[in-house]
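Supplementary Note 3. Input sequence used for the single-chain structure prediction.
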Amino acid sequence: MIDLHMHTQYSDGTENCKTVLKKCEEKKLEYISITDHNTAMAYEELENTNIKEYYNGKIIPGVELNTKILNIPIEILGYGIDYKKMNALCKNVYIDADERNLIEAKRLYEKCKKNGIKIDENCLDNYKPEMFASTFFHKEITKYEENKKIISDDAWEDRIVFYRKYMSDPKTPLYVEMDDFVPDFDTASSLVREAGGLIFIPHIFEYKDNSEAILKNIL
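The predicted structure, written as discrete structure tokens, is reproduced below.
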């Protein structure tokens, strides 16, 4: 078995590197790749670790980069990278994750107020930047049943669908502009190539109605 798409606490994962490796060993995974968002710091940490104490399979250095196609936020995966070079490159292109989350939260708050979505006036006071804006506002929006007339059933039930279907789609009123802190596809893909890696597209159908257009544009 293999798993080439996983995250640690260096991005949006819940476990540290050693715990991730232990779980991979328990599941008898033969090949893995840790693909944190916009960073490969996990691999620098593991330089000082006797990996065989935790995991005996093959590790392919990887990363997941946030980018845009047709103004739609997507992700790309880079495998076989020089992780030190990738970390240096990412520092020149990506802002800190907490800073990005806070910008998104403030912009989504304004979009909600502008488009008649009921949310608590002071909800941003309770927002913590380590949380995804989509996670926080999905909870805030679904607190009020009257918002059901604006949000589709599938997005109401699932935070990821809400993010893909509304925050990430330029055709919707809740689209959150990211041009000032998320690089375009050519820029992001060039980082993978500069770090000696190969580019892959994960979970293409998560992008819903935009999936086919995104894939065609990339190809």
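The mean pLDDT is 96. Strands lie at 2-6, 31-34, 58-59, 62-69, 72-79, 198-200.
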